[in-house]
Amino acid sequence: HNSQLIFTTSYSSVFSPPIYLSFLFPTFPVFFFTLTLSPPTFLFITKTLSTLHSEAPQLATTTMARLVVEIQDASDLMPKDDQGSASPFVEVDFDGQKQKTQTKHKDLNPQWNEKLVFNVNNPRDLHNKTIDVIVYNDRKGGHHKNFLGRVRLHGSSIPFQESEAIIQRYPLDKRGLFSHIKGDIALRVYAVHDSSASYAPPPQDGGAEESNTVPLQEINTNYKPEEVLKEEEEGMKKKKKEKEVRTFHTLGAGTHEHHHHPATQPSVISGAAVAETRADFARAGPASMMHMQVPKANPEFALVETRPPLAARLRRRGDKTSSTYDLVEQMYYLYVNVVKARDLPVMDVTGSLDPYVEVKLGNYKGQTKPLTKNQNPVWNQVFAFSREMVQASVLEVILMDKDLVKDDFVGRVSFDLSEIPLRLPPDSPLAPQWYKLEDKKGFRYNSGEIMLAVWVGTQADEAFPDAWHSDAHNISHLNMSNTRSKVYFSPKLYYLKVDVIAAQDLIPSEKGRAQETHVRVVLGNQLRVTRSASHSRMNPEWNEDFMFVVSEPLEDLIIITVEDKVEVLGRLVVSVRDVMHRHDHRKAPEPRWHNLHRHLEVDTDKQKDKFTSKILLRIYVDSGYHVLDESTHFSSDLQPSSKHLRQPSIGFLELGILSAMNLLPMKEKDGGTTDAYCVAKYGNKWIRTRTLLNTLAPRWNEQYTWDVHDPCTVITVGVFDNCHVNGSKEDTRDQRIGKVRIRLSTLETNRVYTHFYPLLVLHPSGLKKHGELHLALRFTCTAWANMVTQYGKPLLPKIHYIQPISFRHKDWLRHHAMQIVAARLARSEPPLRREIVEYMLDVDIHLWSLRRSKANFYRIMSLLSGVTAVCKWINEICYWRNPITTCLVHVLFLILVCYPELILPTIFLYLFVIGIWNYRFRPKQPPHMDARLSQAEFIPPDELDEEFDTFPTSRHPDIVRARYDRLRSVASKVQSVVGDLASQGERALALLSWRDSRATAIFIIFSLIWAVFIYVTPFQVVAVLVGLYFLRHPRFRSKMPSVPVNFFKRLPSKSDMLL
Length: 1059
Hints:
Layout: H1 2-14, H2 17-22, H3 28-35, H4 39-61, E1 65-75, E2 88-94, E3 97-100, E4 111-120, E5 130-138, E6 145-154, E7 168-171, E8 184-193, H5 225-238, E9 304-305, H6 311-314, E10 333-342, E11 355-361, E12 364-367, E13 378-386, E14 394-401, E15 408-416, E16 433-438, E17 444-457, E18 468-469, E19 486-489, E20 493-504, E21 518-523, E22 526-529, E23 541-551, E24 557-563, E25 568-575, E26 580-582, E27 592-595, E28 614-622, E29 651-661, E30 676-682, E31 685-688, E32 699-708, E33 714-721, E34 735-743, E35 752-763, E36 766-781, H7 784-790, H8 799-802, H9 807-825, H10 834-841, H11 850-878, H12 883-898, H13 903-918, H14 941-947, H15 957-989, H16 997-1016, H17 1019-1030, H18 1043-1049
Helix pairs in contact: 1-4, 4-5, 9-10, 12-17
């Protein structure tokens, strides 16, 4: 087998599709010779080699695992028979394997305490699979069953150690929208490797006994070519009907096992002999240089694809909201709009009442604000009760009178839930009606009416964002606004240019004193200072230009001060609103002379002194730039500030924020809970979902849309814990749960992506997963031609390249733009707080981090790995490691030398074939936060502490000294590498610099000889000689360095001139 495996490897590397196809165009005679082989012989060789190559290595490296699902008990199940009971059993489906427990007759709180064990063929693929646990009601001895609920578990959450698994209770989910399901089930799920597993899955019915001495199945390769051809023809006919499966049998430590057990009584037998089926064998793939295999990251931090029942996938054409809310699951709510009341009776001795309305549905109730001394109150408040929380069949609207001791009953109105109409957009809002108030016995009063509107709708209803929700029943009216969903827009930002040119007639208070004047320009909290001008005392010149960030409505003032070391020589105040605007890169406005004043005054035309000092300035708002308020690496908007220069949209992006699960408790109250909400940012539009209180598995199901102008942009979605729902202090900061960034250019158009994204946050104690965020995403293109041409246009507007901003100024301007955006959004109601904006915009992305430095280093090494693989492949060809490949390269080289016009077509055809070949391996999932790429999985504690250190440092001097020494050691290696690179470049320059006269003389004489030789010799002959020498056999090679390498290393460099 060893010799066959070596030959198979050579064969597969020669005939891997990209390399093999690249020879078809220029080496047609060789390819034709290959086809002259008899078809039976060619098929026989191909089948035998591919079988040995695909199966033999797998036999030695196959690993198995067991998935153990412990069914503990269930409680409060839905009754299904006429006696108010049920006979439940549990069926577990994993990777096509189904097992079920015993049936518990007439028991709504059954206890099974059974273990179901499943085969896991490839443990590395477990995180991509799901486990369905379904509870049924046994109607007629297992032949008929009713659905009682289900639980779907993702493989990424399953531990691989039994000690880490705990019993968890899962609420049973519905199968459809109108299913009536309740109750929960207790499960304990874990996986164990085959070597340590003591469980065996129940065998299939009808099996026979097997001995533990059964040998491995042999693969007979001694077929005749004709037999192989017949088998190939028969296999092609059956290929569409059944999938090819290769089996591999192994035995456990036991001796015998009877394979006949009842289906409802799975047995757990220790050490039993088990026959395992493997279906994951594959044929030999392409050469490694075509597709680099990246090691898999921690499955806990991986992306999990889902298939939720969304209208965009189910294509419900009859649904009215499918066109606008098709990326989220519909959630039905009972809406109650309390508008106003009139002619209310007098309840107090003052001759009036303090009315408020209480809306009650089961255990949930909402309350309006009490209005003092008002018999005709107006509330205009909407209440929303989730259908999942409905615990009663009657809705009560009770009108009460606020009193000091006990509130008085005024009247009520009742509604039967079965009679409430269903209203869905685009229907118009339901018109409110007047209802007579009734007493507690149901009799109507003569006076007193209340105007209400009651309907059933979804989260697409226009009343949804501002409604009082039943899950926020314990929140006061003052804090209610902090829990609602809102849309925000960043302020419109511009760059303001101030060119300080010169000043005239500056008069100091003390004559004869030497002046070193400079100009200080202040705009808000932005400050810039010119250099000191000392060559002219009264008429200095500076010729410096500054840029500032301003935002609409342009209410800021520019304060320009001319001063020296002793005193202020003059001031000027200019309003930004009065400044000229430039919309493109054309000629800038002409500079103007402005009067300087000793006191702080606004510069107007009315204030003209007979004699004043003057300053020459050019001030204008340049709206042709795009103001960068986020990092250019993941910018979400690249349009210029001027609306006249903006490009039309190429499509729109739709985001459905579905839910989150397994969130970590961020608060310690009630045993640990989280009040989670999401924030998404794309372009200048920010969205904030409503806050769901006291839950670790919130379900938002909110959908939002953005216009897309450039596909090479990034959308950012963050999850936070709301710390202001109970009237916390203003300086309390909302806590980070995690965020996700997705680049639009990596998404296929018109495709719906639904995944669970890991929420990863780096803490001083290490990397933590705070949960998973369930998102649905779709990028729709409406202008294909514009999108394709967008790839040939520059990222930023034209003026960024005609009049570029220096890198140092970019960071300074970006910092102030971020501060302006954060300050403006913090003034909204409810505020989008500063810590949220800074986290979404990655304010601290520029700070030093050894972890980020390592990540960037390994990114560079990953890029160079492709070049290294090509060099290794060329080296193997030169040393004839694979004679067949080397011979084919010789043939290809000779053909290209004889027909040089085929060189460029061959190169581009090769690139085309590689691209087509790699299409099979294209990423199927959108990008996400990669813990392995970020070097965040295993970080030393000292490096983490250094990353979270303040600037300037606040650590002990000994710690800072140790870190400085470590940085010096790293810098010394970088210093050595840079010195070596400099030496090589200096040696190349020394070839003709006559620093070593003998070496330069040798080189120029050699160059002359080669010039004459190449002139008198045809180019094809020279190319053939050089190529054959380069590809010569190892027998003609020496282990010593070549003459050109020795000559180059002897050339002088400047390293010996350094101190």
